[in-house]
Structures are given as structure tokens and as C-alpha cells.
């Protein structure tokens, strides 16, 4: 950890910075007695373009070269860059003072006000230019991307997709709140779980992919004990589609039915399934077999919760309850005993008849 100089920004400097609102550049230097940081009042700049800002700052630094300074240059209405400008030719004492005061100044200004990619340490005048700034920003972005693994890049893409879905949900919710003035709503916008039909399927609030019409119909008619639905995500068409629908499935044959549904393609793929193992009781099964592609693993895992919520909202209308949710790797990891109705009844009975053992007397 580098030593701190103990020098801090003056109240006047902080007041000036807070009133700038990214309207003009600010050049900061040490006071004459080296006890505080102050605005360099010999620098003047209009409220021109980014290029004008850089040129005026560079020209001013050139006139006082090789003395160091701190620079705050607006980039747009929302952000500015912060740079320590410490030339190699600067006096050693000045170089030490400016280098050891930088972190203190950033803290006082509010380090959160500057993006990590917008904080620089420059030592040459040509670096103080819009061209160099754009070059360094591009280089920073490229370096960050090159450091990411393929899995991390995919995760970033998934997070962006989920953020869009969440923003869409919030936007619809706000529109509903704004219209709560007694005006009747259409059925398509009556709740957050409503769906909007499109030519290629159903786009469901909270779900990042469209629900295929066949799957939507199967979910709405899912009412028979022993019924099994299997469905997958098609990454090419960005839809969740039905892969199989079977009836009279017994727990003992569940794995073989799911295996048959998953083996329609050569390579292993994750899949979701719904199994009504007893009247009005449904289990949700998410399987991700070994050998599945990394991208598919991430997409299925990140969409599981929102898809399950959508399924629950549909089934609840038919008095069905999803009371079990399983997540397994290979299908043979599925515990079939969990679907034993007799076991469920025994568990419920043992729960009802369970008494707490009385506590013994305290020891003296």
C-alpha cells in the first residue's frame, strides 16, 4: 500500500466540483504551501465540445509543463474522466506529493462518480487528447473481454437478456399502476403473468423466451394424474417448445419416459418436465445430463425460476399445485420414491402425530 501525503481537497474545491455538473473541465493543483488541493484558477475553458475540452486542458498543461496536475474532463452529461498528470520530468518532490494524494482526492470527490475505465494516470502531453482517450477506452474494453472465459461471456449475455426481461416486466407493471383509476382492463393486461400472443408463439412476462402455442395448450389441459409433459428451449428460435406429452405414466417408468424424450437428439441436452404423480399434485423436473453444452446449461439454469413461476400460474387456475421441484444431472439420479403416494401419506401422518418431548427439570 502506498503512503498517503495527508493533503486533502479544500472546501472551495469541493464546492466548485459539486457545482460543475459536467459543464466544463477542472484542473486541480497543490496550493502554494502544499497543504491542500485547490482549483487552478489560471485555467479557463468554455463549455464547448469534448475535443475543445481536451485541447484547452492540453494547452494549459503545456504552458506550465512539467508541473503535475489532476484533471477532471467531462465526457457527456452523465460521466467525466479523472486523470493524474505527472510528467516524468517533474520535480521529484512534486511527483511524490501528487502520486501519494491521488487516492485521497478520488475518495473526497466520490470514487463512484468515475467509472473504473475513466480513471487514468498520464505522464505525457499527447495523452491528454480525445483521440488517446477513445483509444484507451477501446483497449480497456478489449482487454476485459479477452480475460473472460467463454462461460463468463455467455453468462454476461444471459444476464443482459434477463435484465431486459426484468425491465420489460417492470415497465408493464408501472403502466398498470398508472392506469389504476377505475378504468377497466382487458384480460391480456390484467396481471403480471398474462401473455401476449404473437405469430411465432407466446411472449410471457418474466420468461426470456417465447412459449410455443402447443406447449401453452398442453399446460392449460394438464389435468390427468399420470400425465407427463417434457419441454425444451430452442436457442435458435428462442422458444420453449413441447417435446412429448404422455398419459398413464407411473413413477416406476418415469425415468424411461423422460430418457426417451431426451434421446430424440444425438447429443445430450437439458430438459424440463411436469409430472402429475397424484391427483392435483405436480412435480417440476429439471435435468441437465453430463455432456450438455455450457451455453445450454447456463440458459436452462437462469430461466428455470421464471418458467416455473409461469407454469405455476397456469396450473393453479386448474386447481393443480406444483409441490415438488427436482434438479438433477443425469436422469437416473431422480429419486422415484419421492412420488410414492403411500410415503407421502405416511409422512403427513407422522407429522401430525409428532409430539415434542417434555423438557426435564433444570439441574441445580
Automatic annotation (TrEMBL):
Alphabetical list of CDD domains matching this protein: ADF_Twf-C_like, ADF_Twf-N_like
Organism: [Candida] railenensis
Short name of one Pfam family: Cofilin_ADF
Principal subcellular localization: cytoplasm
GO molecular function, one term: actin filament binding
Residues annotated as domain ADF-H: 1-138, 206-344
Self-association and partners: Interacts with G-actin; ADP-actin form.
Subcellular compartments: Cytoplasm, Cytoskeleton
Residue stretches of biased makeup (Polar residues): 40-50
Region Disordered, residue ranges: 40-60, 178-204, 337-364
Superkingdom field: Eukaryota
One GO CC term on file: actin filament
Record lineage: Eukaryota, Fungi, Dikarya, Ascomycota, Saccharomycotina
UniProt name for this protein: Twinfilin-1
Single GO biological process annotation from the record: actin filament depolymerization
Biased composition (Low complexity): 186-204
Family: Belongs to the actin-binding proteins ADF family. Twinfilin subfamily.
Compositionally biased residues, Basic residues: 354-364
Keywords attached to this entry: Actin-binding, Cytoplasm, Cytoskeleton, Repeat
Amino acid at each position: 500500500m502506498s503512503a498517503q501525503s495527508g493533503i486533502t481537497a479544500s472546501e472551495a474545491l469541493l464546492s466548485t466540483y459539486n457545482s460543475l455538473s459536467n459543464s466544463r473541465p477542472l484542473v486541480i493543483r497543490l496550493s502554494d504551501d502544499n497543504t491542500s488541493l485547490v482549483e487552478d484558477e489560471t485555467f479557463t475553458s468554455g463549455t464547448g465540445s469534448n475535443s475543445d475540452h481536451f485541447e484547452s486542458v492540453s494547452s494549459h498543461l503545456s504552458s506550465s509543463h512539467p508541473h503535475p496536475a489532476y484533471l477532471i474532463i467531462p465526457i457527456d452529461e452523465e460521466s467525466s474522466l479523472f486523470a493524474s498528470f505527472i510528467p516524468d520530468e517533474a520535480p521529484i518532490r512534486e511527483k511524490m506529493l501528487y502520486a501519494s494524494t491521488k487516492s485521497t482526492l478520488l475518495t473526497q470527490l466520490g470514487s463512484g462518480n468515475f467509472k473504473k475505465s475513466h480513471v487514468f494516470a498520464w505522464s505525457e502531453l499527447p495523452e491528454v487528447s480525445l483521440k488517446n482517450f477513445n483509444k484507451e477506452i477501446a483497449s480497456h474494453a478489449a482487454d476485459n473481454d479477452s480475460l473472460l472465459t467463454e462461460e463468463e461471456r455467455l453468462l454476461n449475455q444471459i444476464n443482459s437478456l434477463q435484465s431486459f426481461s426484468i425491465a420489460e416486466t417492470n415497465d408493464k407493471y408501472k403502466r398498470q399502476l398508472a392506469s389504476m383509476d377505475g378504468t377497466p382492463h382487458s384480460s391480456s393486461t390484467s396481471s403480471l403473468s398474462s401473455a401476449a400472443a404473437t405469430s411465432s408463439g407466446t411472449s410471457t412476462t418474466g420468461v426470456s423466451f417465447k412459449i410455443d402455442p402447443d406447449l401453452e395448450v398442453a399446460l392449460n389441459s394438464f389435468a390427468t394424474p399420470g400425465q407427463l409433459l417434457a419441454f425444451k428451449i430452442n436457442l435458435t428460435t428462442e422458444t420453449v417448445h413441447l417435446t412429448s406429452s404422455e398419459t398413464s405414466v407411473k413413477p416406476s417408468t418415469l425415468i424411461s419416459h423422460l430418457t426417451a424424450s431426451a434421446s430424440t437428439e444425438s447429443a445430450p441436452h437439458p430438459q424440463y418436465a411436469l409430472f402429475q404423480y397424484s391427483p392435483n399434485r405436480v412435480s417440476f423436473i429439471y435435468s441437465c445430463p453430463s455432456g450438455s453444452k455450457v451455453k445450454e446449461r447456463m440458459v436452462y439454469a437462469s430461466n428455470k425460476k421464471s418458467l416455473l413461476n409461469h407454469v405455476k400460474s397456469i396450473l393453479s387456475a386448474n386447481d393443480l399445485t406444483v409441490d415438488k421441484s427436482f434438479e438433477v444431472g443425469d436422469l437416473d439420479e431422480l429419486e422415484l420414491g419421492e412420488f410414492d403416494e403411500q410415503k407421502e401419506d405416511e409422512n403427513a401422518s407422522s407429522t401430525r402425530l409428532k409430539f415434542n418431548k417434555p423438557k426435564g427439570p433444570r439441574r441445580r
